[in-house]
């Protein structure tokens, strides 16, 4: 996964989110996320996979216009309908490229959201998530009808703790 931020003209910081395209059978269809995906044989490292997937999904070329900052903590999850664990490794990049990008069919929309907004307590909420064992209430951040939750929310919280606004 790639967490991509950019500085704004007024010295703020914005973070890039994608809204996943709606697809039959995808439990996270339409959810907000960070670009990224599975490693493929041509990927030398998980970071290379994040860079490739970001380019494929969004047109954001991190090799040309991204400045690698750091790796966040690995997260353990599983693929939908499979029990085998999967490791998700988030990488943080500063975007220094053009604003024009070309998302592919996997992305419904791309949204830049202010870190100040994402950190504000009044924008935090809860979302019910149904499991076979019952409904859980999970933390989330709401933005203009979008809901950032789950792994994306966990990565966001770790990033916010770093305070990218600091020089």
What would you say this structure looks like, in words?
By secondary structure, the chain is of the alpha+beta class. Helices cover 21% and strands 39% of the residues. It has four helices and eleven strands, in the order E-E-E-H-H-E-E-E-E-E-H-E-E-E-H. The strands form three sheets. Strands 1, 2, 3, 4, 7 and 8 form a six-stranded mixed sheet that branches. A three-stranded antiparallel sheet has the order 9-10-11. Strand 10 and strand 11 form a beta hairpin.
Short structural description:
This protein is of the alpha+beta class and 167 residues long.
Question: Which class of secondary structure composition applies to the elements?
Answer: alpha+beta
Order of SSEs: EEEHHEEEEEHEEEH
Poorly predicted runs of 5 or more residues? none
Q: Helix tally?
A: 4
Strand content: 35-45%
Average pLDDT figure: 88
Radius of gyration: 16 Å
Portion in helices: 10-25%
| Main beta sheet strand tally, sense and closure | 6 strands, mixed
Number of strands: 11
Coarse shape: globular
First-last Cα distance: 25 Å
């Amino acid at each position: 996964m790639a967490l991509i931020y950019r500085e704004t003209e007024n010295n703020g910081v914005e973070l890039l989110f994608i809204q996943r395209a709606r697809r039959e059978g995808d439990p996270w269809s339409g959810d907000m996320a960070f670009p990224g995906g599975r490693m493929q044989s041509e990927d030398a490292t998980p970071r290379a996979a994040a860079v490739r997937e970001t380019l494929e999904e969004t047109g954001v070329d991190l090799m040309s216009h991204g400045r690698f900052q750091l790796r966040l903590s690995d997260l353990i999850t599983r693929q939908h309908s499979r029990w085998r664990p999967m490791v998700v490794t988030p990488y943080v990049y500063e975007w220094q490229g053009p604003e024009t990008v070309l998302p592919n069919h996997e992305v419904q929309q791309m949204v830049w959201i202010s870190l100040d907004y994402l950190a504000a307590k009044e924008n935090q909420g809860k979302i019910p998530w149904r499991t076979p064992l019952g409904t859980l209430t999970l933390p989330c951040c709401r933005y203009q009808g979008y809901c950032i939750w789950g792994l994306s929310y966990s990565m966001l919280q770790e990033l916010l703790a770093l305070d990218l606004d600091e020089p």
